[in-house]
Structures are given as structure tokens and as C-alpha cells.
Amino acid sequence: MQLCECGGRNSERKRKRNMMMLCLVFLVIFIAFFIKFLTADGDFTLLSKGKVKREEIEDKVVWVTGASRGIGEILAKQLASLGAKLIISARNEAELQHVKQQLTGKYAPRDVMVLPLDLTSGEKSLRVAVEKAESFFGAAGVDYMIHNAAYERPKSTALDVTEETLKATLNVNVVGPISVTRMLVPYMLKRGRGHLVVMSSAAGKTPAPGQAVYSASKFAVNGYFHTLRSELCHKGIKVTVVCPGPVETTNTRTGSTERRVSSERCAELTIVAATHGIKEAWISYQPVLAVMYLVQYMPSVGYWLMEKIGGKRVEAAAEKGNTYSVNLLFDKKEG
Predict the structure, then answer these.
(1) Which of 61, 102, 223, 272 falls between 20 and 30 A from 74, CA-CA?
(2) Is residue 214 annotated as a catalytic residue, yes or no?
(3) Where in the sequence is the domain holding 68, given as residue range(s)?
(4) Is 16 inside any structural domain?
């Protein structure tokens, strides 16, 4: 009887030790996951893919708009180094020529094609540009179309936006990319393949106080291209929508306390997303990344959060403060 009682106590102690070990393992996993989330610069699906798949880019024709500066210029440099056959576009041809001379790679700079493009120039002009792009490289056709050009004005309230800003933003961010796509995709359909990469924004996933029209343009782009994919994916057309948060570029304010992903890292993750065929990718540090997750999976909480900071964010922008600070939740001002 005594032996049975001792055996039972030992079994119980062993069960408790096993439970404690299991809890400890789960705790360690949770802490590691939490630290990873706090330090992440992209969504977990994107970061899990690792490196760029060079074979998906090398020898492919890649057309990049907005390539004269910022993320577009960095994209051009990275794509050239991966062996892409590049077509670079923007409004300013002199700036494009300057970018071209800085490119190095299998086909760069010698074979990089400069194609000036104004997305607001109208359908006739855009059609000519598409036909030229398709005729380059022995009429190989465009494999990747990277819609990177964008128009954004300084932050203001939703009611303070002028008609001029409204039209300019929608023409460059929405009408232009959709028009080019409408003319280019039929060529891709004939070849049975093509990949559209759309540089959208975190502002196209969540409310963006102070950026109402810009946000509206990015929501519109997301809706169009996700729908396009659902209609044409079975015909060989791929679509990757990239939603960066704040990114450090030559145009961003110096001396800012806002934590921004570098242009180089943003471009790298964009190419990772495209070469792995990811449908939508988020690129940002915290707290923007957390807000995107909240709005996506717990919309009531996410929208409540944005209501808490909305007015304060506009004020912070007017004072040239940090418009992405957690302190906006607690009535604390941060320069």
C-alpha cells in the first residue's frame, strides 16, 4: 500500500514537472515571438520568405515608374544588380539619365532603356509609352510592371484639401497606373504571363489622419489591383500589392524623430515579395505595423485607436513633430 502511495506521488510530481516545462517552453516561444514582432520591419509572411529569388528577375524585362528618385531609384539599382533588363520611367528625362549612369549589372548601364512618362498625360500618350516599352529588348515584352510613381502633398485635414490637390493625387496615384495597366496587360495575356507590382501604402490599409486624399487613392489602387488579380490569375497574371509605412528617402525631413524603414530595405523587401509571388506585403516598423494588424484582424479596435490619435496627428504634422509616435495616444507631444 505504501509503495503504491509513493508511486502515485512520484507520478504526480513528474506530471507537474512536465506541465511546468511545457509552460516554460510556451513562454519562451511567446517572448521570442513578441520580440520578433516588436523589432519586425515587415509582416511575418514576407519576412519568412528570406532572400530575393534572383532567378525570377535575371534576364526579365522590368519596367519601373517613378524611377528618378526615392524608392524607385533604389529599386532600379537593386534590379539592375540582379540582372534585370530595365526600363526606367519618370517625368524628368535628365534625372532618369543620371540614374541610368549609376546603375551596374548584367545589362546596366548600357542596355537600360529610358522612357519618359507623365501619368497625367492622357490615354493617347500613355498608349505610345506602353507600345515603346513592349518594343524594347527585341520586342520581348514587359515581364514585370512596377507601379511606383506617386503624388503626395504635406499633411492636412480632410476638409482642407483643395480641388487641385484632389485631382492631381487621383490622376497620378489611381487613373495613371490603371490606364497603363489596361493597355499593358493585353500584351501580357497574349504571352500567358506577366507580373504587376503595385507600390501602395499603409495608408491604403488603415485610416491615415492628415492624408485623407492620399489614403483614398491608395485604397482605390488596392481595390482595383486585388480585383484584377482575382479576374486574371488563371491566365498567368500575377499581382503583388506592397504597403509600406514611413520610409526614409531623400525627400523626408531631416532631423525627424520618426523611425522609418530605409529605402534600400523597402526596395529589397519589395523585390522579395514580388519574386516569391506574395499577393500583399506590409513593410514598416512599429507602431504602424501593429495598427495594420489591428485594422485587418480586429477592425473595431483598430478604428477606435485611429479615432484616438486622429486630431493629434494632424496637429503633430502642423508642428513638424513625430506623426507616428505612440505618445499620440497619451496626449504627449514629441518633436
Answers:
(1) 223
(2) yes
(3) 44-289
(4) no
